[in-house]
Design goal:
The structure is a single chain. The chain has two domains: 8-183 and 205-212, Tetracycline Repressor, domain 2 (Orthogonal Bundle), CATH 1.10.357; 223-412 and 449-482, Rossmann fold (3-Layer(aba) Sandwich), CATH 3.40.50. The radius of gyration is 26 Å and the shape is globular. The protein has 19 helices and seven strands. Helix 14 (327-355) links the parallel strand 4 and strand 5 (358-363). A seven-stranded parallel beta sheet has the order 3-2-1-4-5-6-7, with helices on both faces. Helix content is 53%, strand content 8%. It has helices spanning 8-28, 35-42, 46-52, 56-79, 85-102, 105-116, 118-141, 150-165, 171-179, 205-212, 252-263, 275-285, 297-300, 327-355, 376-396, 414-417, 419-427, 434-439, 451-462, and strands at 243-247, 267-272, 288-291, 309-312, 358-363, 401-408, 473-476. Helix 4 packs parallel to helix 7 (118-141) and helix 6 packs parallel to helix 10. The two termini are 37 Å apart. With 483 residues, it is of the alpha/beta class.
């Protein structure tokens, strides 16, 4: 996570990005929201975005935290001056209802957090309820409320308040609840009782969407498998009973593939140098993890893999002119991104051949089809992976094993974000200009690819319906390779 900005201008820029994210996430949902759209609404460049946030997911989690902090502050400020707990409850609820009326996006975003970031969702509720429990406990000790369990009461009252708050913008009804007036009770003199039926929550289209979330299957995990955040469900692909291995699955494209494969029913094992990150993702999806250095190819010579699906994703990057390129670094990139895939495929094929089924999915790049300056090792490795994939396709086809490459342009991952400073130095431009001036120059669609977009295609390639697809290279490059 990036450090907090130190200047007023930096804090204001970050605030604009958060405000834009609130608008875009609320209207489009997490999966369909893009960094390009958020920065466009905020009026900042994509390069500026990465000065404040590493990923779209981090922005989402920071937005949940920001909304939580603001609603707690509103409730605290309103209830502090109350003479007793009952008055404090009324003032706090009124402030909560007023905040949710002004920020109806709160419900949509918090509901999406259940799938996108369960940790952020738990933190949102626990931060509210922890203070609530303490306040009720103190009120009980002071004799201001009856003998109740403060924990049960806090959760119950918070749940009631949330349901009432969903009646968005209905301030008169909110006032009636806060004042304790029943809907059918006495009304002030001269005020006509409105007998027209109130619009139900389900009749309010915007609010219904906020409660139910986007009406897209890919946001609803299959019931028979673990709830997997920020993964799209592929309704036509059932991988139940399949075993998948994903390299570099601790973050970025690899993590997205691991989540998507698990959502489709596969049991996923993650191999990554980042053992803690791999373990976190594996725990999240109900899979397994193993810390492994794919640059140590000697240790891979005798490895055995019993899997149905192998996703070769792990990779690193170095940006430098050829005359300045460290030969050892060049060799390391080829070991991780070409030799290791060969050795892992070699270890996987015997069991795949035995079962008559196998899917090799190689996360290549548009740089496997096109070259760019200052990336000699990366381009060489990806071109080599393309050739290797085609040989695997020819040898494995008669045995029921397919092999394909996915070729995205720049993807919104830590690997790409780490390039920004190097690209700025090499091209003598500001970091803010790298995304628009370097990374998106060749693409017709001017945004970064999102990891879930790559993962959704990987899941399809892993399924039965892709049985005749082999030796292919699928571009997700916004039109880059069409030139």
């Amino acid at each position: 996570m990036r450090a907090a900005p130190r200047t007023n201008k930096g804090r204001e820029t970050r605030r604009r990005i958060l405000a834009a994210a609130e608008t875009v996430f609320s209207s489009s949902g997490y999966s369909d929201a893009s960094v390009a759209r958020i920065t466009d609404v905020a009026g900042v460049g994509q390069g500026t975005f990465y000065l404040y946030f590493d990923t779209k997911l981090e922005l989402f989690e920071q937005l949940v935290e920001d909304l939580n902090r603001r609603v707690r502050r509103a409730m605290s400020e309103a209830s502090t001056a109350a003479p007793d707990r009952i008055q404090a409850e009324r003032a706090g609820f009124r402030a909560f209802f007023e905040f949710t009326a002004d920020h109806p996006s709160l419900y949509r975003i918090v509901r999406e957090a259940e799938l996108v970031s369960p940790g952020a969702l738990r933190l949102h509720y626990s931060r509210i309820v922890d203070g609530y429990i303490e306040g009720l406990r103190q009120a009980g000790d002071a004799g201001e409320i009856g003998d109740i369990d403060p924990t049960v009461a806090a959760w119950a009252l918070m749940g009631i308040g949330e349901m009432i708050g969903m009646r968005r913008n209905d301030r008169h009804a909110v006032g009636a609840v806060v004042q304790g007036r029943r809907r059918g009770g006495p009304r002030p003199a001269g005020q006509r009782h409105d007998r027209r039926p109130r619009r139900s929550v389900r009749a309010d289209d915007d609010l219904h969407r906020a409660r139910a979330g986007p009406p897209r299957d890919h946001l609803r995990p299959q019931r028979s498998h673990p709830t997997v955040p920020h993964a799209r469900r592929t309704a036509m692909t059932d991988l139940s009973g399949r075993r998948a291995v994903v390299t570099g699955g601790a973050s970025g494209i690899g993590a997205a593939c691991a989540r998507a494969l698990a959502t489709a029913g596969a049991h996923v094992s993650i191999l990554d140098l980042d053992g803690d990150g791999a373990s976190d993702v594996a725990r999240e999806i109900g899979g397994e993890s193993r810390q492994i250095d794919l640059g140590d190819t000697a240790a891979l010579a005798d490895i055995e893999l019993d899997c149905d699906i192998l996703v070769n994703n792990a990779g690193i990057q170095t940006v430098a002119p050829i005359q300045d390129f460290d030969p050892q670094r060049f060799s390391l990139i080829l070991r991780i991104m070409l030799e290791a895939p060969f050795l892992l495929v070699r270890a996987s094929l015997p069991s795949m051949y035995e079962r008559g089924f196998g899917r090799i999915i190689n996360i290549s790049s548009v740089h496997g089809l096109r070259a760019s300056p200052f990336k000699s090792a990366y381009v060489a490795a990806k071109h080599g992976l393309e050739g290797l994939s085609k040989v695997i396709a020819l040898e494995g086809g008669p045995q029921g094993v397919t092999s394909n490459c996915l070729n995205p342009a720049y993807v919104n991952t830590p690997l790409v974000q780490k390039q920004i400073a190097d690209q700025a130095r090499i091209h003598s431009i500001a970091e803010d200009d790298v995304v628009s001036s370097i990374m998106l120059t060749e693409s017709a669609i001017k945004r970064l690819v999102e990891p879930h977009e790559v993962a959704s295609l990987a899941v399809w390639l892993a399924g039965e319906d892709a049985g005749m697809v082999t030796g292919a290279s699928y571009t997700l490059d916004g039109g880059w390779s069409a030139r």
